[in-house]
Each structure stands twice: as structure tokens, then as C-alpha cells.
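Re: export button greyed out
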Amino acid sequence: MSEMVISGTGAVTPVGIGNEQLWDHVKNGVKGVRKTKRFPTLNEIPCAEITDMDFLESIVDRRMRRSADISKYASAAADLAIKDSGNGPFSGTDTALIMGITHGALNYTQAFHASLIKEGIDAASPLHFSDSVLNAPAGNASICHGVRGPAHTILGGAETAVKAIILACMMLESGCVGKAVVVCAEELNELSASCYLRMGVAGLSEGAGAIVVEKRGTQGFPSHHCRISGASSMCYPSAPETASAEVITRCLAKANLKARDISLIMTDCEIPAGLSLDGMPAASITHLTGNAFAASALWQVILSSLMIKNDTIPGTVIRNGGAIPDRIRHIMVFTSGVQGNAAAVVLTRE
Amino acid sequence: MKNRVLVTGIGLVTPLRPFAGAEAFWDAVCSGEDAVRWMPPPLIDAGRKWLMAGIDITGRSEHVCSEDKILFIAEEALRMAVKDARLPEDRKSGLSVGTVLGNILFKEKRLMEGNPHKTKNSFSGESLSNINSFLAKTFNIKGGCITISTACASGTDAIGIAARKISSGEENVIVAGGADVLSDFAVMGFHSLHALTEEKVRPFDKNRSGLALGEGAAFMVLESEKHAAQRDAKIYGRIMGYASRADANHLTAPHRDGRGLVAAMSQAISEAGIKPAEIDYINAHGTGTIYNDRMETLAIKKVFGDAAYSVPVSSTKSMLGHSFGAAGAIETICCLLSINHKKIHPTINYTERDPECDLDYVPDIARRSNVNTAMSLSAGFGGQNSVIITGGI
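Workaround output, generated via the alternate export path:
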């Protein structure tokens, strides 16, 4: 894995679209979460929405104009990452597209069932069906960009972003593809928003993130963002704390690092005790972008790569009082979920 | 594959003799039993029936509601596979699950009742990775777990990705497979696409008119050769090659020339280190739709050349219907059973030859054949094409 690099990033977030806007807005602490009346049945709730739909319409393939929002976000983020990598073409069988999603195109699923109930069995829309299928965002993105290698969709919570990165690295290491685009996407939906509100989780979000992963030395130009020096994921529902501790330990071992080598941990989760990570500076952009689950975790990865590239940690993302190092060497992105899933990835400056 | 990946346990629950084990299933498919019946969709009162292949779980568990069905059959299939492999109780293994729709029935019930806002308790069961988490918790699994969704190729990709992980040394043991159940979403969705047959499922037949939906779960235990040897495991065969390729053409229709399937077959054959003529049997995707069967036949001819006419091709879906994410896993198990029993199950309901589908489809009667290497083909929405090659030891 030490040979894998992130050569391009693309973000479609409620606080900024594209690397420059995201970076500027995060530095300035621009918040995407605000009260919205988007869902009539839910009154006013705090959510982070993508508002620049004109941008999406201009960047996304015309064939996708009726696609679900999640597919548009995914394709637009992939487009930005591909352009950022500058290492085309991405069409053909030598590129993989690995998608991570948490809820999928729920708005179309809801519309499909609504038409069944209201208008009967012959009224259901084929578009609402095909675009609701869980791998539709990956399928649409592969069509949009001509990607003809593996186009996989991984399902799950925030840890799915790291699992997608691990799968991309595995494919690159096996030699079955030469490049991989990792995308995570989510769209806001009434069903999930109402249920999360009941669970006490507010500030849901939407959008997508994408990164281009390649083997070091294969990219056509030298200025990649950072190296992926280690990654690990685990599911252990019987002992979630063990899963968290083990993925961090394994991730550090794969990166050949000690805990003290880590400059910053990007996470929304509790950092497991007893791993010499006490006092480590911790950061997150979720309070700015809102929570889009797998997409949020990939936004953390994207921001980490931008921090390494710019050698700056914006003060707006710091969560604790940990001492910020003079120079950023290694950033760990760590996620853990309620079902015993945990995952971590370390990004390293070259 | 860099290092050998062995299959040491199999388990499946299908509409044919669902809880009787793999050998009973094999007897049923080799006898050409047809599981497809006229059935209503699970929830909606549609006032009519469709041809489907369902699994009756009545009386199996008092706790089982229709929404739980996927968890129940997945648990049963996985338990069968683990028991068959005689894995120790305290196991550290990975889990790789393929599903197209997952536990959509949970969400669907809420949607069909017109009551979208419900309690958090039902919502946690709707998590798309809930099947994986449920199985991991039930079987006390500790390892890398992944839920993969590549439409109707999900089961194939779940196994293929697991095999890659073992081959690369990332894991020693992974339980991999797929599960899906009938839902209104699937029935009405395929109905809206005019893809469902009103007659019999007749893959590759001139009069084929569409697919029938099905349901099921199938899992296999994959192990590194070293790990299997250390515990003297029973071995069904090995995963020799795997590849997945996208059409990048259309969300629901296959590429007319089968370009993605051709690329996937070629890559898998290359990875297996064999020539096309060395494949003894092809388990086709074989849905029974006009476009899929024509495309699949064309793709096989492109890869195999003249050898295409001498390799037997059969469709498990002619008997079980299309069980989405479970299909690829069930069909990979069929390939392994063909290798072990030296027998190929038939394509049933095949009565009239289509000039555009002119291969040997093993019509209606099972056939003895010295199968040492078999290939399973899967395709799905999003332009997915996945291929697994299995071989004997």
C-alpha cells in the first residue's frame, strides 16, 4: 500500500464545490448547516444542502439530467477529481470506480412507492426504479466518464469510505487496473432525516467526494497530493471498542509508524484510549459540512490531503487542544460505527 | 490469483428444497425441477400474480416476519457453509456479502403503509449494511467485512473480492456470498421495465419472453491453501480467476455486443492462466430476456471462437428464477458441484432453437461431463459484468 498515492481530489459539499472553494470556505469557517423547510412534513430542521445545482447541470453528462441527485453529485465529484489529477484518460478498462454509499437514492425510492400507492401498479416509473437500485450512482458515473473497469458499490456507514480506498488499493496492487476513482455520495431525504432526528442526530448533509488513487510513479505528472501509507478496517460487533483499537494499531503497523508520528487525527468519533494517542490534535469538518456519512468520511480524507498539500491545518476544524505540529507529516482519518465497524487510513507527505 | 484460494464449505437456501442442504439442491437442479410459480407480490394488493420463485419460511421460526426473511435465509445459508467447512467456533474470519436490494422490505413496509416517519428501532434495521452486521454479530465474526452491491452480479463480486483478499494475504478465511428476497420494489420495478415473463422462463429459447424473479441466499467459505492444509479441510475446489468489467453504456440495458462481458471473461481467463478451450462448462447469467441471452451468446462466441460450440452452457435461473444478489453465489456453487459430481445441470423449458442463440445449452436433461474447470457469468444493472472461474484441485 505504501506505493499508492492520491493524485486528484474533488468535492461537492454544502460549504464548497471543488478543492479551492472547499479549502477557502473551510479556512473561513463557512457553515453549510442551516434551518431548512425542504421537507414539508418535517417543519424546519437543520440540514446542509447542495444549492449550486446549476454547476451540477453544467458538469454532469446530459444523459444524466433526469438521474437522482446522488448520481449527479457522484459524477460531478468524480469529474472534479479526474480533472485535478490531470492524468487522463480515465475511460476504458484500466480504471476502476469504487463507490461508497450509506442510504442511496432514497428520494426516487420514495417516489416509486408513492406512485404505486396513489396511481397503481402500472404507474410506477422505470426511472425511479433503475435509479434507486443501490449501484445506480456507480453505474451512472461509469457511463458518464466511460469507466469500463470494475464499477463497485460498497454499502455501509462512514467507514465505507475507507473500505472503498482499501478495495481500490487492492485492485491497483493486483494489477487488474492502473487507476481507481473512489467516490462516496449521499442525498438528503425526508425518511432518513426524520428517523435520524428521532435518534437525536441533526445536521444531515448531502453531496459527494472523490479521489483518484494511483500507484506512485505511474501518474503522468509528479504533483500528487499525498501517499496512502496505511489503511485498515474491521467489523467486530461483539466488541466495537476492540475493533476501533485494532484498526488504528494495524493501520499504524502497515504505515510503519508509531502513534506519536501522527500529526493530526481527523475523526468525529471517540479516539480509543490506551493507544498513546492522548493529547493528539483531533479535527473534523462535519460541524461545517453536516453529516453525509460515507461522503463525509471521504471529505475528511480530501481535506486531509489538502492540508498536507498546503502544509496548513485550518483552525476552524480543530476539535481539541492538542498541540499543532510545525510541519504536517502524517494525518490519520478514523471512523467507527455503532455496528462494530471501524476503519482508519493514514495519509503521508512525500 | 497470486496465492491459491480454496473453497472449503458451501451452503445455500433456494426455492428448490430450501433447507435440505447443498446435495439435495443439486439433486433438484439436476432433475430439472422448476421452482417458478404464480405468486402475488409480498405487500401490495396488486390484484394479480406474477411468475416468481419464492421460499416458504412458514413455521421455520416464530420470530420471522416477512421483513426478517433476508436475515433468516442468509443466516441459514451461512450456518450451512460454516458447518460444512467444519470451521472452529472461535474464528477470525472476514465476511463479504453481496446484495442488490438488501433489507428493503423493512423500508418498503413503512412506505407502503404511507407512514414514512417511524421509530428509530425499525430504522436501524434498514441500514444497508445491516445484513452484514447481523451475520457478523450472529457468528461472532472478527475481521474485514464488506457489503458489495453490483446489481445482479453482487454475489459473484462478493466472492471475487473475497478471493482477491485471500490471494493477496490480507485474510486467511472469508465467508462470502449473497442474499436477496422478493420485494414489491423488485416486482413492480421489473414490471415497469416489461422484463417479466408471463409464461415459462426459457433462457436461450427462441420463444423466451422474459425473466421470473426469485430469492435466495448462498455462501461459501474461502480459505488460503496454507490455512486449509493446516486444519485438513475438505476442499470443493479453488477460485482460479475473477474479473469485473463495466459496460459504461446504459443503466438497465446490456451493451449489444457484450463488450463488458467479453472484457470480464477475457480478464478472468487470463488471470486463471488458461486458454478458453480449457473451460469445460459455462454457467450462464441466462435470465431468459431477449437481449441478455443474445448478448451473452455473442460474448461467449467472441471469447471462445469456434470452441464456443463445444462448451456446454446452462442456466440455473431457468429453474430458480433470478435471485438478484444471491444468483451469482448460487451459480458459482453450481459450478463447484459440477466439478465435484462431474455433471452439468440442464437449462429447462428449452424447446425451440433461436438462430441467434446457437450454442449447446444442455436442454432439459442433466448431462455427465468431465468438468474440471467451470466459469460462472453474471451481469446486471449499471452495466455490471462479473466472471468467476472455478477449478478442481
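The first strand of chain B starts at residue 5 and ends at 13. The button fix ships in the next patch.
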